[in-house]
Specification:
Low-confidence stretches: none
Order of helices and strands: EEHHHHHHHHHHHEEEEHEEHEEEE
Bound molecules: protoporphyrin IX containing FE
CATH architecture: Orthogonal Bundle
Number of strands: 12
Oligomer: single chain
CATH topology: Cytochrome p450
CATH superfamily: Cytochrome P450
CATH class: Mainly Alpha
Number of domains: 1
Length: 422
Amino acid sequence: MKLGQYDTFVVCDWDNLKDAFANDALLARPAKGFISGIEETLSVIAMSGDVWREHRRLSLNFLRNVGLGKREMETLISEEIHQFLSSLEDDANDLPQRLMPSVSNNIAALLFGRIFYYDDPDKIMIDQGVQRFSESFQLTGILSFFPWLIKPLIALGKANLKVISKTHQRMHAFISKEVLAHKNKVKSTEIEDYIDEYLNAQSKRKDNLFKDMTLRRNVVGFFVAGSETVTSTLTWAIMYLVQYPQYQEKIRSEIQEVIGTEKRPDFSDRLRMPFTQAFLYEVQRIESVVAFNLIRRASQDTKIGPYNVPKDSLVFFNFWSVHHDPKLWPNPDKFNPNRFLAENSTKVVKPPYLVPFSAGKRACPGEGLANVELFLYTVGILQRFKIKSDKPLSFDAHFGLTRRLKYKPDLIFEKYLSNNSI
Ligand code: HEM
């Protein structure tokens, strides 16, 4: 179909999606990024071609060597979750609203090597920025098709682009300070965070591909990509725990059996908690928070299945329809974690067509970190609280960067474990 000036393709079924994941001609993003006119320098999320490949390699190396699967990062996350749960001792009913600042602290740990107190003005500014960017994604979809709209929209003061642009400036000013502090710190051979990794690569390269401005854009990109997605998935998880108290109890009994009440959860505990894992898979399937992927572009004439895709066409991957395809998922609209269980419910099986993080060479590089967070937050919350509601719940969604819960739910977080020592 034609949207604006672009041929646009939406890949809706698993066979074609598998093809598209493996197609190197579909790795690019829209030529001018997602918000042309505001983001002249593209972040790794919006880049294409060789510059993307180099920046992606750096991000993956960093996540592998410093960020993921490392005890230190899991310890930092566990510390942050502890800070978060302790902050709820007086008023746990505020939990969903307080999730984002906590989740974004994990990204801060990755980028800056430290976490913030929730009332730190810089932290409040970052979280407001992340919120605004996520909301602006509704608009960025439209602007990818009608890029000429950007200037009239700014001139008319419409679509709060001015606010986005101001938010941009404030975040960049703060990140510049952090980068400067990293440049000035006593030189150590150890890479402690993403800024260290980037500056180190920058100093070794002669081609000027790694620029300070790009570093700042990447930091903002990581905050946006890593905060809203995890927060939104966790919020949906909480809703399903309330809607299906029997599943909440099942997870709690796995917690009792594997972790108990004295110890903080560990990511390795998941290996003995198949139902908890199945529950999180089902939340990701049924809500598909990044429902249409981030827009891809054909960098040359190519094909998806039998369809010819001309160069520069825009391509959406419709994860929602694959995740709700009755040929792949019997009774797809029913929330049923048991569909992922096998061998008498002792094993969890993830089929290849569950793709909340996309797949192939441009798949989400934060999947490992996100999985650690989803598990540790869910288990940490249920170790302390029983969650319920005495009002009917609305599962209506709102579209931004992710599909988010539209209305603030009325939830009751009943303290289950008063022991604050874990
Ligand atoms: C539940 C949580 C998350 C979901 C569902 C999710 C999903 C996605 C999806 C669908 C994409 C687009 C991939 C494509 O174009 O094929 C993506 C890209 C990306 N994600 Fe995530 N993500 C999550 C968490 C995270 C986290 C925690 C981080 C940070 C560590 C992160 C960083 C990124 C980055 C940097 C990209 C751009 C990659 C590129 O263009 O090369 N994400 N994510």
